[in-house]
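Checked the freezer inventory, then went back to the computational side. Two predictions to log before the end of the day. The first one is the construct we discussed on Monday; recording sequence and tokens without edits.
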Amino acid sequence: MSRLAYSTVTDKAHLQQRIMANLPVQASWVDSENGKIILVDGLTENLGENSALVNLEILPPVGSHVTLRIFDEEKTIIEVSTEVIRVERDPSKPLAALSVLENLKKWKLNALTAAQNWVTRHWQLNYEEEWVN
């Protein structure tokens, strides 16, 4: 007769929180070919505990260091150094995945809080009246 063992897994991978929010950003990096600074405005697709997925018209090369500024109502929320870990060259929606390199506590406090506030405002503006009985 076989027995079933019930056990808990203690080495579970921590699932990182991602917040789907469209906050305005400004990304800047140094062009490796001519040494000029490239400055591009865009929007976040989502923010994670140590990363951001941003929609930019001009994509930085994978592996490059990018200074990312996130805004809320034209006020800078945070400015951090990031590294490009992936790009998606879809002409309709070019995306860069950025990994935050420093100030993770400040990132979690400021950027994730701003993203949560954006979601709350978006929900209130677009859906609250539809669900009120």
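The second is the one RB wanted added to the comparison set:
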Amino acid sequence: MKIKRRSSQAEVPSMAMGDIAFNLLIFFVILARAEDDSHLHWEPAVATEITASGAARVAVLIDSDNKFYVNGQQVGESQLADEIDALLGDAPAGERVVLLKAHKDAQAMYFEPVIEAISEKGGDLVHVLEQRQE
């Protein structure tokens, strides 16, 4: 005796396909954006005698790719002075602290324009270093 099999065909509603495509699009847009923000590579320089600094209004970072970041936002070399000036505002002397975080392998041609921009705008330069372990 043979048993007759029923053939079943599943159909996906076309409305669900649109929702799935929209959710995938949102997922990949968010994933791509998260990838762009996570490429800061910075290893601090080391020194033997270090003193702690106070709170800072501005932090300038030079990463391993020699890109400039002011308070986490990437800027070009020509925009450094304007960004620092805008963030320091009308702060009085003693409250114009600017942290300079340069990658340990950064060359002078990359950190000298930052030092110049900070001094031009009246900032108090503090270089971020790591205590040398002996």
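For RB: The chain has a mean pLDDT of 76. The longest strand covers residues 97-102. Let me know if you want it refolded.
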